[in-house]
């Protein structure tokens, strides 16, 4: 299966094949259209590829597998939108740094994108606080994105959100009978029910607990089929994140 993961990753121009996570069965964010002002759409040559979270005016936190290299050609973010057709603030990505211990989806699937110029904060564009507290099982959270609304579908133009609940590592492993060795302490797993979950296009997006960033959307296999959604656990890479951000200040 590790071989399969590697093949899927190299076969994609920006994301990792069918393991790319979108919100399936979520709710349209229409009553409060800009209720996730920290979320950005990461694009390559105009196409939405991943989500990301604003942590300050120049830094976006996302998944490492959203980038096949550190080459930023054609990469930019759009902030302050609820619909992919909105204009928002479009800013080129000047630099990408993936975690030095990143290994496919299994370890440290986190990256920092530095923007060419600062964002202008307003009611639609805001930074999200990063949590440094460990999260166990049974915690209610929210994830959101513009990913596929069904497997092998297409991205959702309108931002969708999904309320989820975390699993313990043991619960997550038990629900991944053929991939339980993929789950480690660097992951947070969530599960709702069949027909609900993240899918392609949601990668790099946020998992929020108590209004703070606790996870980064990493992978699921397959989408919304009763398998856990897997997020990179922020606390396991917080030291690296802080160090990299401080170097930009």
UniProtKB/TrEMBL annotation:
Q: What is this protein called?
A: Peptidase S1 domain-containing protein
Q: Does the keyword Signal apply?
A: yes
One Pfam family of this chain: Trypsin
Which terms does the record give in the GO molecular function aspect?
serine-type endopeptidase activity
One GO biological process term: proteolysis
Record localization: Secreted, Extracellular space
Keyword hit for DNA-binding: no
Superkingdom of this entry's organism? Answer: Eukaryota
Source taxonomy lineage? Eukaryota, Metazoa, Ecdysozoa, Arthropoda, Hexapoda
Q: Which UniProt keywords apply?
A: Disulfide bond, Hydrolase, Protease, Serine protease, Signal
Species of the source? Photinus pyralis (Common eastern firefly)
Residue stretches making up the Peptidase S1 domain: 23-246
Question: What are the boundaries of the signal sequence?
Answer: 1-16
Which GO cellular component terms, listed alphabetically, does the Swiss-Prot or TrEMBL entry include? extracellular region
Q: What is its main location?
A: secreted
């Amino acid at each position: 299966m590790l071989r399969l993961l590697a093949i899927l990753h190299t076969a994609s121009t920006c994301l990792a094949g069918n393991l790319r996570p979108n919100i399936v069965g979520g709710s349209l964010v229409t009553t409060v259209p800009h209720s996730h002002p920290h979320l950005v759409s990461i694009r390559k040559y105009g196409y939405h590829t991943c989500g990301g979270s604003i942590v300050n005016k120049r830094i976006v936190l996302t998944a490492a597998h959203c980038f096949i290299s550190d080459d930023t050609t054609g990469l930019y973010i759009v902030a302050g939108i609820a619909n992919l057709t909105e204009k928002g603030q479009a800013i080129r990505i000047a630099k990408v740094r993936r975690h030095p211990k990143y290994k496919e989806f299994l370890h440290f699937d986190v990256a920092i994108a530095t923007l060419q110029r600062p964002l202008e904060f307003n009611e639609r564009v805001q930074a999200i606080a990063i949590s440094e507290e460990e999260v166990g099982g049974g915690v209610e959270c929210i994830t959101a994105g513009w990913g596929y609304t069904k497997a092998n579908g297409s991205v959702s133009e309108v931002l969708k959100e999904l309320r989820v609940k975390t699993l313990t590592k043991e619960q997550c492993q038990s629900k991944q009978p053929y991939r339980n060795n993929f789950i480690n302490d660097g992951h947070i797993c969530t599960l709702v029910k069949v027909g609900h979950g993240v899918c392609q296009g949601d990668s790099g997006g946020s998992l929020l607990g108590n209004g703070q960033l606790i996870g980064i959307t990493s992978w699921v296999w397959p989408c919304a089929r009763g398998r856990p959604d897997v997020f990179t656990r922020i606390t396991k890479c917080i030291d690296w994140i802080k160090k990299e951000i401080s170097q930009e200040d």
